[in-house]
Every structure is written in C-alpha cells, then in structure tokens.
Amino acid sequence: MNILVIGGGGREHALVWAIRKSPKAGKVYCAPGNAGIAQLAECVALNVKDPSAVLGFLKEKEISLTVIGPEGPLVDGLADALRAAGQKVFGVGKKAAELEGSKAVAKDFMRRHNLPTADYRVFSFAEDALGFVHSNEYSPAFRVVKASGLAAGKGVVVAKSVDEVIVALQDAMIKRVFGAAGEKVVLEETLEGEELSVIALCDGKTLLPLLPTQDHKRVSDGDEGPNTGGMGAYGPVPQLTDALWKRIEAEVCEPFLKGLQADGIDYRGVIYFGLMLTRQGPKLLEFNVRFGDPETQVILPMIDEDWVDLFEAVADGRLESRELRRRPGAGVVVVMAAHGYPAEPRKGDVIEGLEAVASLPGVTVFHAGTSLKDGRVVTAGGRVLGVTAVGSDLVDARRKAYDALGRIRFDGAHFRQDIGARGLRLAKV
C-alpha cells in the first residue's frame, strides 16, 4: 500500500523510518520531508493547507493511508476533509485538535471531566490579566504563563517572581511575541515534581499507551535556560512505579476517554498527556494531539510492532484488544541544535560526520531541521538532528548516543550533556 506522511521534522523522519519497516508499506511519500527523510521516502511539495490539493495527490498516487505528523494541519481540520472524501487517515479531526490548539479549551476539558490539573485562569485581555495579578485574589503560586494558541512548543513561561509574570503577560498579550497564539492566555499555578510524557494511540473507544518517556524542555543542562520544543528524551522512566501507573490509568486515561465520549469527539490518532508527578499524585500539564517530538524518536525504536498495522487499526477504529511488544532495555534521544537556538537559529551550516555514525549498532540519526545544498546536508532549522540510541539499559543507551554525537559536527552545534542523567540518579534511589 502507498502511504503519505505529512510533516518534515524529526518526528516525521521517525514515522517514515517505522513505516518503511512494515511489509505492508509500498511507495512512501512525505510532504515536505527533509534531507534525512529523502533517503527513505519521496519528498514532495504539497500545500497541506489546501485539502483539494492533498486529495488530488492521494488519488493520483493511489495512497491508501495518510499519516499526519504535526499539529498545524490537524488544527486546520485536514483529517476531517480527507475522511469526508473517503480517505483512510491517522490523525485527529478539528474538534479533537482543539485540545492542543487552545490551552484554554484543554484546561476547560480537564476541569469538566475531573482530570487532575493545576488551578488556572483564562484571560482574553491584557488589562484583565494584569488586574488579576495586582488583585487580592492573586496567589504567588500562579507563575505559569501560557499562550493559549499554538506556539511551536515555546509559548510557556515559568516565572520565578511576580515581576516576571507581569513581563510574560505583557510579552504574550501586548507585544505579541508569540503572534496570534497570545491572543488568549492561561495563567496557572506551578506544580512541583517529575515531568512525564505518556503518549497513547486512541481510536475514540480504546487507549493503547506506548512507552512512557521523560522529555527535557529547557535548552541547557540542569534544566536551565528558555523552554524549547524539546532537547532530548529517554524511556522507560524508572520513577514510574506500577502503583503510580495504575493511578495514571484510573485518574487520567480512563476519565479522558470518557470525556471524549461524553463530548461526542471523534478521536482517531495520538493523545499525549504531559504530566507532572507531584506529591499529591499525577497532574496534567497539557494535551498534545500528535506524537511528541523528540519522544517519538525513542518510542518507535523501542516498540517491536508493525506500525502501519497499528496506524490502520486506529484509523479504522479497531484498536480494541491490541497489545504492544516492547523491546528490552532503554532508549535515549539527544537533540543537536543550531547556533542561536531557540531564539534565532542559524541556517546553512554544513553537517559532517553523518556517514561515520550510520553503521554504529543501536544508533539512528533522525533529521529534524536539515536540507540539501549542493549535494551536502546543511542545517535548516533550530533542532537539527535527533541522535537516538537503544541499549541494554539506560547507561548503555546514553553511552551510545553521546558517542555518536561526538562524531557529528557543524558550526555552532550545541546539545545537552545530561539527557537521561536524572533517570539514572532516580534509578539508584
């Protein structure tokens, strides 16, 4: 069967890589793809904001399955348009995508269906938000400022003081540093604990959790510096005990599924629960309605399944009774970022050493922001590469990943040295 993957980042490279391993996969296309994806699939220029153009391509190339990677086309309703035309799609519809497209909608869904989350307020006007901060109602615990709309993973500020809260609100709502995403802002209480990413396949009736992972959002070691789209991840997560997992299933997964059904939401794709493991138990930070990036680059290599078969099962509503075979050991992905990332990443730097790591056992390099220039791979985005390694345990996986990172070079490259180190410390407790 011919398959189209929509997107051009590290997540989509991992999706194409997994799809190509399936005996069901025929010709694989990717729109727009990148320099790494081009080694596995035919990259095509396709206006994914125009459903008629996408439908024309699907018919011309006899595509049997479309896998939508990024959140933008999902929020725009592309999956709905393709399904209405009789196409098989892995990806949620517009109504479901609001759970990521609007943090205000997501928080209201959590409250309405009794999912555990931080207390919050939603503001549409800067004067109202600033007035709340200066009022007697305000508690210093309200230090998380979130642009409600899509902001490429960068619309969240965890302030250290009231003054920083005020600046963050002004940046989002007055200066519009996040563009239209800051038209509405969620101000919520901070939560303390360990972060956890739980990503599951969902067909609206069944949730099938994949490998829980821990993402690293801050740009620098020790969780310092500004938030990014993600600088690395690892899994499994040693702090996730059996007892804690049962609580997540009972307090998060089951109420979420019932909430979808109560609200009449057709959900066929991925749900990403961004969790904080607090002393009071698991609490939801956010929803994403697609595979996480870079968590996907760990999850797919760690699960021994035919991913095309799984994507079809979700698209057809046949996920019930499916189980997953997880590979033993652990996986780690470390992101190599461009000079200036996340503020002003530089493009066009030549990447060297990719051939040197191609044959390393247990290592796969997923391209995120790359392109070809004069036959050479160059940087073309902020997060350039995701260097993934699978090993017998977390120590082995980290060793392989960082050994590979040491063999890849481009001007201004930077990456965190401590991806997975927290898991090692907690495993020894």
How do the strands and helices of this protein lay out in sequence?
Layout: E1 2-7, H1 10-20, E2 28-32, E3 42-43, H2 51-60, E4 63-68, H3 71-76, H4 78-84, E5 89-90, H5 94-101, H6 103-112, E6 120-123, H7 126-133, E7 142-147, E8 156-158, H8 162-173, E9 185-189, E10 194-202, E11 207-209, E12 214-215, E13 218-220, E14 224-227, E15 232-235, H9 242-263, E16 269-278, E17 281-288, H10 296-302, H11 307-316, E18 330-337, H12 354-357, E19 363-367, E20 370-373, E21 376-379, E22 383-391, H13 394-405, H14 421-428
Helix pairs in contact: 1-10, 5-6, 7-8
Describe this structure as you would to a colleague.
The protein has 429 residues and is α+β, with helices and mostly antiparallel strands. Among the domains are: 2-93, Rossmann fold; 125-183, ATP-grasp fold, A domain (Dna Ligase, domain 1, 2-Layer Sandwich). Helices cover 31% and strands 26% of the residues. It has 14 helices and 22 strands. It has helices spanning 10-20, 51-60, 71-76, 78-84, 94-101, 103-112, 126-133, 162-173, 242-263, 296-302, 307-316, 354-357, 394-405, 421-428, and strands at residues 2-7, 28-32, 42-43, 63-68, 89-90, 120-123, 142-147, 156-158, 185-189, 194-202, 207-209, 214-215, 218-220, 224-227, 232-235, 269-278, 281-288, 330-337, 363-367, 370-373, 376-379, 383-391. A five-stranded parallel β-sheet has the order 3-2-1-4-5, sandwiched between helices. It has a five-stranded antiparallel β-sheet with strand order 12-15-18-22-19. Strand 13 and strand 14 form a beta hairpin. The longest helix is centred in the middle third of the chain and has 22 residues, at 242-263. The radius of gyration is 21 Å and the shape is globular. The N and C termini lie far apart (49 Å). The mean pLDDT is 95.
